[in-house]
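Problem 12. The chain below contains 328 residues. Write out its predicted structure in C-alpha cell notation.
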Amino acid sequence: MENYFIESNAYNPWYNLAVEKYLADYVQKEEVILYLWQNQNTVVIGQNQNALRECRVQLLEAEGGYLARRSTGGGAVYQDLGNLCFTFVASEERYDVEEQLKIVMKACQKYGICSHFSGRNDLLTDDNRKFSGSAFSMTSRGKVQHGTLMINVDVNKLQRYLTPTQEKLKAKGIASVSSRVCNLQELNTGLTVDGMRAALRAAFEEQYGRCTELSLDMLNNDKIQEYYKMYSSWDWRYGRSPECETVYSHRFTWGEVEVNLKLHNLIISECKVYSDTLEVQFPNMLEGLLLNQRYDIQNIQIPEFHKADEELAKQLKETIMWFSGVWR
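Solution.
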C-alpha cells in the first residue's frame, strides 16, 4: 500500500482541477493520495448546474475572478485564498469516505474545533454551521472525494457573486442549497490556511501511515495541459448548462423592448422580440441577430444600413449593448 501527498502552488482553478483529474486518471492499485490546493477569487459550480442561475458571471470576471465547472455534482461555492481545497484520490479498495472525513475532523480538532457529519456529506460545527462540503466522482482507476474548508473566506464576496440577479429565469438545472456557513477562524483566531495544511497532512499520516510527497515536476506534462484546456474552455464552463428560458425587458428613449429567449447549452436556440418602437423591422432584425449566438453575444456583427435606416441601426446597436450586460 502506498500513501502520497501533493500540494499545488498555483491559484488557477482550471489548472488545479486539471491536476486533480490527472491524479484520478493515473492512481494505481492500493494507493491513496491527499492533494491540497487553493483557488483565487473563484466560483466553482457543479457538473449539472446552470452557470447563469448560480453566479453573477460577468461581474465576477470583470473583477478578475474565475468561473470553473467541476466534474462532480453538488452546488456552487465561492473560493478565495481564505479557503483550502482538499482531494482524496484512492483506488477502489482503499477509498473510504468516512475515514477520509475523519482526517479533516482530526485536523480541526488540533485547533480545538469539534465537528460532525451532516446528511449531505458536509461537516458542521457544534452549532450546526457548515464549514466544509464534499462532492464525489469516479474513474476507471479509482474514486475521488474533494471538498472545501472555509478558514477565512471573504463572505461579502461570496454573497456578492453567488446571489443571482432578479431575472425571469426558469431553469431546469439544480439550484444550490443555501446553508448557514462559518469561517473556522471565528472559532479559533490562531488558525491559518498554512496551519490547516500542516494539520491535514499530519492527520493523514496518523490515519494511514507515513506518506511520500510527490514532486510538482510530475505535473509538467501534456495530459495536464490537455485537461487544462478542457476546464478553461467556454464549452465546458458555460456550454454544459442545462436548457433554460429567460426574459429580459428594458425601456429606451425610443421605446420598450422585451426579449424572450430559449437557451440550449447557452446557445440562443429560439428568440422572440416584442417592442413598441416605430421601427417596424426592429423585432425581426434583432431576432435574426440573436438567433444561434452564444448567450454572451461576443461575436454579433450588426450589418451596414442605408442612410434612411440610421435610426433602426441606432436602436439595434443600443439594444445589443444593453443586452450584452444583462447577465452580469
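Discussion. The domain at 2-237 is CATH 3.30.930.10 (BirA Bifunctional Protein; domain 2). Students who got a different answer should revisit the alignment rule from Section 12.3.
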